[in-house]
Amino acid sequence: MEFQAVVMAAGRGSRMTELTTGCPKCLLPVGNVPMIWYPLNLLKRNGFQEAIVIVPEMAKNEVSEARIDTKVDMKLDIVTIPSSEDWGTAESIRYIKDKIKVDVLIISCDLITDFELHQLADVYRTHSASLAMLLAPVSLSLVNAPAPGQKGKHKRVRDIVGIESHTGRLMFVNSEADFEENVPLRKFILTRHPVVQVHSDLMDAHLYLMSKWLVDYLVENENITTIKGELLPSVVKKQFYHSKTEGKNDITNMKASVTSVDPKKDIHSHKKTGEWYDLLSELSTRSNQWGSLDDCYHGDQVRCYGYIMKDGLCVRANTLGSYAEVNRLIPKIWDSVTGNSERPISASLSRSKSQGGDDSMIGEGTNIADKVTIKKSIIGNHCQLKEKVKLLNCVIMDHVTVEEGSTLQSCILCSNAFVGKGSELKDCIVGQQQRVMDLSKLSNDVILEIEKFIEI
Q1: Per-residue pLDDT for 127 more than 60?
Q2: Could you say which architecture CATH assigns to the domain 345-453?
Q3: pLDDT at 256
Q4: On the CB side of 434, how many CA atoms lie within 13 Å of its CA?
Q5: pLDDT, tens only, 390-403
Q6: Could you write out the three-class secondary structure of the chain?
Q7: All CATH 2.160.10.10 domain ranges in the chain, comma separated
């Protein structure tokens, strides 16, 4: 086993609490399957047979009942972290340190992509990297997607990424808020790496390949709480340090050895003479007369790389807007994202007087009455859509009832919600088990059971 896979699913969905108060974030439906199914399916398609899944203790029963393991045909080690603790991602990795025996692939539960993992693994192996991360162009359609229930736009937090053009070596990775007017870069670094591109339009996909010794480093440094905000910038910065007096716990001294590349290992059809390796060797030799890639490392024992995804889909369903938009896209992108042309078990429009198309998905056991119109919508399992209901750009979760004559546009209805007769809802969120009275006319409203937010 070359890599262990860890799926981070303990997040509370702080930017989409309107949906996660009644459902763990990782189980929110995207295209009528739980969100976490997508990264697990990605792992399965790329040869992984098992994975560690980190969830909050309070969600353990719900995750177990969802039987995700049977949906993806993988052996899952479900690890719970205390719900009373507000742990960051690095703290969660530290918590499972005894389970991690080799290098690790870390992936977020909200990542939906058709990326082939061997492309990142090729870079990781070629350079005997300490860490490699997936970067993708920001999708403005997703970033700017309107969020139901919100009248203002979600404020985008940009990352500033410096990356060596021809090798992918990371020079810095920080949030925009960490910089003032200028991006500082030490002179000796620019001397060694003179061609650095600075990007502000890339998304950190939260997919990392990480050396086992970095897990040990996290164990030794309990002050580090997050991977993205703390570990990643620290490791990228310290890869250029060479001082022998920085202390026994310094990151450059924690790395006991660099694992050699075995061309037979793979995720799972890797060849060392791939496109990336040939290009890196050619460019390095031409531009600096280096005889091998080793000479371009300048003795750096810690090396971090970023792979910029050029084609395909890579999104994170981590905000209300992106969650709603991904659901609308899923019917079109299902085949490429899942690698499977067979969609989840779904019902069809059973009556000739109802209208719907390939831009929608309808769950198992859902009953659709006469003269119902469904466009660009996801309808969950065991729902009831009465006569003359109209749905456009909606996400309807399981066991929802929409009474006759109601019109819903760009809405999210959580499980067991009820919408009364003749109602008109636009850009609204109806929480779990909440009711909308007959003839209601609502816009940009959020209907929740407020008491659930109150902690004593």
Answers
A1: yes
A2: 3 Solenoid (2.160)
A3: 47
A4: 22
A5: 999 999 999 999 99
A6: CCEEEEEECCCCCCCCHHHHCCCCHHHCEECCEECCHHHHHHHHHCCCCEEEEEEEHHHHHHHHHCCHHHHHCCEEEEEEECCCCCCCHHHHHHHCHHHCCCEEEEEECCEEECCCHHHHHHHHHHCCCCEEEEEEECCHHHHCCCCCCCCCCCCCCCEEEEEECCCCEEEEEEEHHHCCCCCCCCHHHHHHCCCEEEECCEEEEEEEEECHHHHHHHHHCCCCCCHHHHHHHHHHHHCCCCCCCCCCCCHHHHCCCCCCCCCCCCCCCCCCCCHHHHHHHHHHHHHHCCCCHHHHHCCCCCCEEEEECCCCCEEECCCHHHHHHHHHHHHHHHHHHHCCCCCCCECCCCCCCCECCCCCEEECCCEECCCCEEECCEECCCCEECCCCEEECCEECCCCEECCCCEEECCEECCCCEECCCCEEECCEECCCCEECCCCEEECCEECCHHHHCCC
A7: 345-453
Q: Are 270 and 118 in contact (CB under 8 A)?
A: yes
259 pLDDT higher than 50: no
Q: What is the fold, at CATH topology level, of the domain defined by 3-258+269-330?
A: Spore Coat Polysaccharide Biosynthesis Protein SpsA; Chain A (3.90.550)
CB neighbour list of residue 244: distance below 8 Å, 6 or more residues apart: none
Better-predicted residue by pLDDT, 363 or 253? 363
Report the alpha-carbon distance of residue 94 to residue 187 in Å, rounded: 35
pLDDT score, position 85:
81
Average pLDDT score over residue span 429-451:
90
Q: Which of 426, 382, 394, 419 is nearest to 404 (CA)?
A: 419
Q: pTM (2 decimals)? A: 0.86
60, pLDDT greater than 90: no
Q: Is the dihedral of CA 124, 127, 128, 129 positive or negative?
A: negative
Residue with tokens 């792992």: 43
Q: Which two tokens stand for residue 46?
A: 């790329």
Q: CATH 3.90.550.10 spans which residues of the chain?
A: 3-258+269-330
Assigned token pair, 404: 């006759």
Helix axis angle, 320-338 to 37-45, nearest 10°: 30
